[in-house]
Specification:
The structure is a homodimer of 129-residue chains. The first copy, chain A, has four helices and no strands. By secondary structure, chain A is mainly alpha-helical. Chain A has a single domain, classed as Chorismate Mutase Domain, subunit A, CATH 1.20.59.10. In chain A, α2 crosses α4. The first copy, chain A, is elongated, with a radius of gyration of 22 Å. In chain A, 32% of the residues are buried. The N terminus of chain A is likely disordered. The interface between A and B is large, with 75 and 75 residues. Chains A, B: This is Chorismate mutase. Chains A, B: Keywords: Isomerase. Chains A, B: It comes from Bifidobacterium longum subsp. infantis.
Amino acid sequence: MSETSSDWQKTTIDSAQAAAHPETAQAVARIKALRQTIDNIDSAAIALLAERFKTTSQVGVLKANAGFAPEDTKREDYQIERLHRIAIDAGLDPEIAEMYREFVVTEAKKRHQRIADAGGDPGVLDVFA
Amino acid sequence: MSETSSDWQKTTIDSAQAAAHPETAQAVARIKALRQTIDNIDSAAIALLAERFKTTSQVGVLKANAGFAPEDTKREDYQIERLHRIAIDAGLDPEIAEMYREFVVTEAKKRHQRIADAGGDPGVLDVFA
């Protein structure tokens, strides 16, 4: 690592800086390419999250109308075990999979409660109206 | 809602209970089908997260070797604006998209720091060794 490395500690990676430090220009180009991959993954992830919350919203309406509680611990235990297994298969730290599960399940339950409080009306979640 | 609805407040949805309450059997069947969709979405999401963390791990190695800091606020501002826009297009509450971003970026930065502390060795993240 060069003596100039500390200059970089709080800087944004851009092409002007890369030109001033030719030795890092290659790393900058490679990071830029990887970031495009990350952005594409995020686009797909957002599309999946949109479909997931549309689906859990339907579950929320059915639960509210049938009088079921938002929480279902047996279902959650199943999801914990399943996502742990899938994460290992995919080469993902299972801790990350559990954080994902906790995030989506917590938010879905909050929305189920809002639907129940609104007497089974999923329109309560429509933030785009 | 029937007077028996309170029986359901803390119960798990299963077919035995559905048989005892025929009026809710249809809702249970519909929830079961929706849960399969949710599980399929989660499988895809875990695969994407696995690829995302593999990619950010590569970024972490490049940053550590070049002496770049794990944090890049300009990049984060870009991601915040972009994911907000994509979420609205997809019909997802932008608040959920921001929670997703915060989760993955926070975890990626922690892992970048671990790689930097290990002198650029991504093996430090290998929880499967």
